[in-house]
Amino acid sequence: QVQLVESGGGLVQAGGSLRLSCSASGRTLSFYSMGWFRQAPGKEREFVGSIRWSGGSTYYSDSVKGRFTVSRERARYTVYLQATNLQPEDTAVYYCAAHSVGSDAYNIWGQGTQVTVSS
To answer: Which of 35, 88, 98, 110 could bond 50 through an S-S bridge, CB–CB 3.0 to 4.6 Å?
Structure first.
C-alpha cells in the first residue's frame, strides 16, 4: 500500500514563498504522474499542478502559472511544490496526489497541509 506524506505548509505574508514536499512510500511505487491540488474553505478541491513521473513534463492551472513550480526527485519518490508570490487567495489545504500506473485518475492522496497567506 502506498502512502503520501506532505510537509512544508504554514503561515506566510502576501508576496512570500513556501516549498511543499510530498514523499511516497510503500511496497510498489509505479506512478504515471504526481500532482498537487488545493481546497479553500467553502470551495471545491481544485487542480494546482502536476508532473509526469517518467518524462518530467509539468502542467499548471492558470491561477498559479508563472508563480508555482512542480518538481520531483525520482530516487526519493518525492515531489515538490515551490510557491512564490503567494496571495491571500492561495490560502487552502494543499494535497499531494499520485496517479498510479493502471489507474484512470489520481487514486492515492495525502492528508493535506495547510497554507495560509496573510494580507
So the answer is: 35
The answer on pLDDT for 104 being more than 90 is: no
Helix (H, G, I), strand (E, B) or coil at 116: strand
In the prediction, which pLDDT does 28 show?
63
The pLDDT tens digits for 38-53 are 999 999 999 999 999 9
Which phi and psi angles does 42 have, rounded to 5°?
80, 5
CA 50 to chain centre: 7
Sign, Cα dihedral of 100, 33, 111, 1: positive
